[in-house]
Specification:
By secondary structure, the protein is α+β, with helices and mostly antiparallel strands.
Length: about 725
């Protein structure tokens, strides 16, 4: 354990911000005159055995552990149900064909483009058609007999062509009842649901046939999940799915590596892994560590619900589904190398270019598509670089090619994937201290809006895998994330800023219930500000530096919101100086800008829900509370992640649809205002982001597009 880690899982209020950093550690407590405040009893490890759930633990008065988060037990990887392997040669592909060729799709694409160029040079149109057909088959995943059969290089919606995919949807699979039950978080038996996820590991890429996990309406929040991974591998790697969980109040909480199982070259590995309750599941990362970053893939749960007797998807799930379902090849920008190869193949197959034109398209860097076929494949195989079109954007700002000007990193969307590079190298970044600011350039080379979010993963707060017995042969586990506390840092709803200020602890009608390990190191606590909850107890949280002068907003909920209408809290929330309300920024770049309309909103709520009587007239009505309204007309309101209000993270409160104009997406989506899926970056546009670290740098600088999260990920490591 390092000197910055606390052995008992406690968090200490260390300092206050008067626009300067105070000394950390025990001396800082004394210097600031603040008491040490713990969120778990000193004798309780919040990560062993299993992750301690903070809300249930606080409200019940006894330790409540999240099932299937205890990583190693009795010398075994506790969540691995089974692990078998078979040779890839002779196995069955995801489209149901016998595999007779075990090769890398990028290598095969390069060979097919070379064949196409040779045929074009020779004027052999029949050979050109054959080679172009091969190129198109590799790009679209229709390659019977290959190990990558069913995995496509172009990232667009094919409407669920595989037998176990939901028809008409993008990479969606519906969970099925396994027929088994296990003890869940409430101490009783609950159903275990399962799903099969096929993955292809090759070069620098993880591809999968699954992104959206559809949870049936009859699944209980305490029901459990089992994922059956089938890994078609051309690499020596470790399967380490990092499961992300919410706490019982729905706030992002922790990620933990649930296994570390070796996968070898030219084999198909079948590994089944148990997961936590569905009601707490935020998603599942799969890391590849031997060449990391950016080898990551994500599984996103979407939830069915019943409204007026009809089974539909809930609001956030509808957002994921509609946008991915409609993702077309036309949405992929012409700068994407896969799109360039597709353009040439279609020119041949549609007979719109003669042989000399096709040869020039493949070999002449000055002929569209830009670059050469070899350069396109080189870019596909290595996302730790920038496409030439991204350099054009930087050069337009006066930045010389190969340099990065003021930017700590440059992140690029293309083919609904992410590329990246920076002055410290593509896979590393200069570390930052708590409170530091740095700029990141985000460039979108696709033809539709992408979204940008940076998440602070913090630092590891568990060590089960790293300290496992040698008999487990976890030789790669030194790189394990173990357990981390993850929080949105840029491109999150405005409510995330309020939670940073309250130390990720404010719960409407439950006062302040702190999560464990939010600020686990002294370097994470150096400039925290103290606050007092409704019971008069002291806590500490982070206040962004924009909170000063005319940019100050006091989040000041009434006592009946801190407590309940029948049992209001004794006190209001108090700032470090004793004044009422928690200071936030009216305009903080990192968070949403959505403004809620005034008046009764029940007519557009997906369930027609009404709020408590907020104005005292005896009528129940859904009216947005005044204390959640940002006093700045250009600043975002706080839309809390509660069942009553969270639908308006995704649905316009003006019209009840995903769209600003209530008809289609031509005028943009409501999430463009709320940042529910990140800060928007328009098609063929770019943004410059200024990011402030609420904690010191941890494992990675994790950036992604939450809406297209299965591929769009880029995560350099602080050095």
């Amino acid at each position: 354990m390092s000197e910055d880690e606390t052995p008992d899982g406690t968090e200490t209020s260390i300092g206050r911000r008067d626009y300067m950093r105070l000394i950390g550690g025990a001396a800082g407590v004394a210097a600031a005159g603040l008491p040490a405040v713990g969120t778990a009893a000193a004798a309780t490890d919040p990560n062993d055995p299993g992750i301690l759930e903070p809300v249930r633990t606080k409200l019940s008065g006894s330790a409540v552990r999240i099932p299937n988060t205890d990583q190693v037990k009795d010398g075994e990887l506790h969540q691995v149900v089974s692990h078998t392997v078979e040779d890839a040669d002779g196995a069955t592909s995801v489209r149901g064909h016998e595999i007779t060729r075990v090769s890398d799709p990028h290598d095969d694409l390069r060979a097919a483009l070379e064949e196409l160029s040779k045929a074009a040079e020779d004027g052999d149109t029949a050979a050109m058609d054959n080679a172009a057909g091969e190129v198109e088959a590799i790009l679209t995943g229709e390659t019977a007999g290959r190990i990558y059969d069913g995995f496509r290089l172009l990232n667009y919606s094919q409407g669920g062509p595989l037998d176990d995919q939901v028809d008409g949807e993008y990479k969606m699979k519906r969970l099925r009842d396994s027929g088994e039950t296990r003890t869940s978080i409430d101490g009783t038996q609950h159903t275990v649901w399962e799903v099969d996820v096929n993955m292809l590991w090759y070069g620098e890429s993880f591809d999968a046939d699954t992104f959206l996990l559809r949870v049936p309406v009859d699944a209980h929040p305490h029901d459990l999940l089992r994922v059956n991974y089938h890994v078609y591998s051309l690499e020596r790697e470790e399967l380490s799915p990092g499961t992300a969980v919410n706490d019982a109040a729905g706030l992002p909480f922790k990620i933990f590596d649930s296994t570390w199982s070796e996968v070898h070259t030219d084999e198909v590995a079948h590994v089944s892994v148990n997961k936590p309750p569905l009601g707490l599941l935020r998603g599942i990362y799969t890391w590849g560590w031997r060449d990391h970053p950016p080898k990551i893939q994500f599984l996103q749960p979407v939830f069915e619900t019943e409204i007026d007797g009809e089974v539909v998807l809930d609001s956030p799930s509808k957002s994921f589904t509609v946008r991915n379902r409609n993702l077309s090849i036309d949405d992929i920008g012409d700068a994407a190398p896969e799109k360039k190869a597709h353009t040439v193949a279609r020119a041949v197959l549609d007979d719109t270019a003669d042989p000399s034109e096709v040869n020039a398209m493949l070999t002449d860097p000055g002929t569209d598509p830009r670059g050469t076929a070899d350069e396109w494949v080189d870019l596909m195989t290595d996302p730790l670089q920038l496409p030439p079109e991204a350099w054009d954007v930087l050069e337009s700002e006066g930045i010389d090619r190969g340099t990065f000007g003021p930017y700590s990193y440059v992140t690029v969307y293309a083919n609904n994937e992410m590329y990246g590079d920076g002055p410290d190298g593509a896979d590393t970044m200069e570390p930052w201290s708590q409170g530091d600011q740095f700029e990141v350039k985000v460039i979108n080379l696709d033809d539709h809006t992408h979204y940008y979010r940076a998440v602070d993963f913090g630092y590891r707060v568990g060590d089960d895998i790293r300290t496992a017995p040698d008999s487990l042969d976890l030789s790669g586990a030194s790189h394990s994330f173990e357990i981390m506390n993850f929080k949105p840092l840029y491109g999150g709803p405005k409510s995330a800023e309020m939670q940073w200020r309250s130390g990720w602890g404010f719960r409407p009608h439950k006062d302040v219930i702190r999560q464990y390990d939010v600020f686990p190191r002294s370097t994470d606590r150096e400039i925290l500000e103290s606050l007092t909850d409704g019971g008069g107890d002291a806590h500490a949280g982070y206040r962004f530096s924009t909170t000063d002068g005319t940019n100050t907003w006091r989040f000041d909920p009434p006592k009946e919101i801190i407590g309940t209408a029948d049992d209001p809290s004794a006190e209001k929330l108090h700032e470090s100086d004793g004044t009422e309300g928690l200071l936030m920024g009216r305009r903080t770049e990192q968070f949403g800008v959505a403004k809620m309309p005034t008046g009764d909103l029940s007519g557009v709520h997906p369930r027609g829900l009404t709020n408590m009587d907020v104005d005292g007239d005896g009528d129940e009505e859904l009216v947005f509370p005044k204390f959640l309204r940002n006093p700045d007309d250009a600043g975002g309101d706080i839309i809390p992640p509660t069942p009553l209000w969270k639908p308006f993270w995704y649905l316009s409160p003006e019209n009840g649809t995903l769209y600003r104009n209530g008809t289609d997406g031509s005028d943009g989506y409501w999430i463009d205002e709320t940042y529910a899926q990140g800060a928007p970056v328009k098609g063929n546009g770019d943004v410059t982001t200024t990011i402030e670290g609420a904690r010191a740098s941890g494992f990675v600088f994790y950036q992604f597009d939450p809406l297209f999260h299965d591929n769009a990920i880029m995560s350099p490591h602080p050095e």
